[in-house]
Amino acid sequence: MKPDDKRIWEKIDKNDDHWRKRRKKKEDFQTVDSVIDLNTVKRLRKLQDKGFIDSISGTIASGKESGIFLAKLGSEGEDYCKALSIVSPIVIKIYRTSTLNFKKIIRYINGDIRFRKHRKSTRHIVNLWAEKEYKNLKRSSIAKVRVPTPILVKNNILLMELLGKKSRPFPLLKNSPQAYTEETLAQILEQTKMLFHKAGLVHADLSPYNILVGDQIPYFIDMSQSVLVSHPKALEFLERDINNVISFFLMKGIEVPDSKEIFNTITKDFPDKDLLT
Ligand SMILES: Nc1ncnc2c1ncn2[C@@H]1O[C@H](COP(=O)(O)OP(=O)(O)OP(=O)(O)O)[C@@H](O)[C@H]1O
Ligand SMILES: [Mg+2]
Q: Catalytic site residue 112?
């Protein structure tokens, strides 16, 4: 185990002990760490026991609603990921159960026919939020939109490909001045169009904070809120995505196309019926 792993596993073990001591109490279901709650600890341990992950080797980001970690695959995981052309290390995204903005996310769940029947408890909604990102990433990667390939989802834990080089994640578009070009903007709009037509999805939170850039190629991440194009607000979300991206590039002094025209070009035809479900 590397020194970095040690720190993280110590934190996890601390929670684990805490869980053992309080196993019979209601508090077991409460969050004891800002990201890793007791049940999540158990799930991570299970993945480790099964040889799917070997160790967690660092924190990539810790946001309000999720924690993003770098993890080394175990031998089981390596075998499984070979078929997906994914190599170690990978990314583990843990959705926080305590800070979920229920009001914000419910509008992206209601109206998505894939999740017509869902349970209403916070715990179930968090799991559904993770599953929704898994499904959206899967549809997108099958459609060859540039996103991290998802590996598996287990309750509030999502495993996916690391977008990066030599274990280092690619930077956000926000922090990639070399990508402030007409060419990158054109690629982003092309990916948005592919997402709509080939995956039948609208990202719904596209911004320089949810696009990574590696070797001048933009990748979309963070797709829990993405909706099917049949969602009643899909076109409203698409318009917002296009405006966000175009105004960012405009602010950086790049010549930009007319956002209304882009919106009309993308929505001129709708995807095939089978992509609406
Ligand atoms: N597959 C990945 N490969 C490399 N880096 C990633 C990957 N997924 C996420 N990240 C990094 O982790 C950060 C947070 O991920 P993400 O946007 O999915 O989570 P979030 O909960 O929406 O966080 P935030 O509220 O900060 O947007 C990203 O900004 C990115 O830097
Ligand atoms: Mg994000």
A: no
